[in-house]
């Protein structure tokens, strides 16, 4: 299960390896559509990539810091540093291909 990310634990949770953080909100319909996709991907990639969820309503400063202007946005961290961001609703297959590429370049 994805870890809940806040300003208090972001640095610790993203410190090592690949971490995919989902920036979302309760009122966001595409975010709700993305949830089951991310859960399925976590089942597949959970031993190699950590998954996190950050509610932008409670963490607007972090959303601004990572230039998240629309949601859902997925920010990929590598060893504590945000390296890429993808925004919008993505099909499972497209996200899986993206994650495969990131793992291959790890």
Automatic annotation (TrEMBL):
<keyword id="KW-0813">Transport</keyword>
<dbReference type="InterPro" id="IPR017937">
    <property type="entry name" value="Thioredoxin_CS"/>
</dbReference>
<dbReference type="Pfam" id="PF00085">
    <property type="entry name" value="Thioredoxin"/>
</dbReference>
<dbReference type="InterPro" id="IPR013766">
    <property type="entry name" value="Thioredoxin_domain"/>
</dbReference>
<keyword id="KW-0249">Electron transport</keyword>
<keyword id="KW-0676">Redox-active center</keyword>
<protein>
    <recommendedName>
        <fullName>Thioredoxin</fullName>
    </recommendedName>
</protein>
<dbReference type="InterPro" id="IPR005746">
    <property type="entry name" value="Thioredoxin"/>
</dbReference>
<dbReference type="InterPro" id="IPR036249">
    <property type="entry name" value="Thioredoxin-like_sf"/>
</dbReference>
<comment type="similarity">
    <text>Belongs to the thioredoxin family.</text>
</comment>
<feature type="domain" description="Thioredoxin">
    <location>
        <begin position="1"/>
        <end position="104"/>
    </location>
</feature>
<keyword id="KW-1015">Disulfide bond</keyword>
């Amino acid at each position: 299960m994805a870890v809940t990310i806040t300003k208090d634990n972001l640095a610790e949770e993203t410190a090592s390896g690949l971490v995919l953080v989902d920036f979302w909100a309760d009122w966001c319909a595409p975010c709700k559509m993305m949830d089951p996709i991310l859960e399925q991907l976590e089942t597949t990639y959970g031993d190699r990539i950590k998954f996190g969820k950050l509610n932008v309503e409670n963490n607007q400063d972090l959303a601004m810091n990572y230039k998240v202007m629309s949601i859902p946005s997925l920010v990929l961290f590598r060893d504590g540093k945000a390296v890429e961001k993808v925004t919008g609703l993505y099909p499972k297959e497209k996200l899986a291909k993206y994650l495969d590429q990131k793992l291959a370049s790890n």
